[in-house]
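Hi, here's the filled form for the chain we discussed.

Project: internal
Contact: R.S.
Residues: 219
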Amino acid sequence: MIFNPIVIDNWSRKPYFEHYLNNVRCTYSMTANIDITLLLSELKHKGIKLYPALIHMITTVVNRHSEFRTCFDSEGRLGYWDSMSPSFTIFHDDDKTFSSIWTSYGEKFNDFYNRYLDDMKMYGSVKQFIAKANEPPNTFPISSIPWVSFTSFNLNVYNEGTFLLPIFTIGKYFHQDKKILLPISGQFHHAVCDGYHASMLYNELQSRADTYKEWLPNI
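And the returned structure, exactly as it came back:
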């Protein structure tokens, strides 16, 4: 867990960062449908849960691009983490509340999946907003709304507008043209990433879903 400070005067993105942070403070949302037809079939065949597979997919793509790992640290310095881990919500069906837990990321899915299962076993029934304590600073949020197939989703974060990390929301998958599509919404800060970067993220998520044989364990 290493935080790499950015020297703004030597940063090629300096004019864009300063404009969208100081002049026109701007975040934006983007929602895209990911084709998970083959991925979902394989997960069901192997008895692997969809939610952690999606969390791992998103985190893998986030870790490939510094734009999605750029933020201010606890000392107010601008920089980027060498790697990120997911902080995600879980739902309590009995009282319709949710909790937030986190799982350390690893590129090997099987290792991450086992840690996810361990965390769910230990913290999945904890009825607190923060079910698992000691969350490290290099995490980003993921949540799921599996009851509706939304076409767009927008978060309104009422703070100083300096939260630079992406926030992801997963919707309910649906059937269309013999495909199974899953809406994933991302909230991005224009100071650190543009529409191009967000588009590449979704393209890589689709590629990740298409190449599931390369990263899912053979069990």
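Let me know if anything looks off before we file it.
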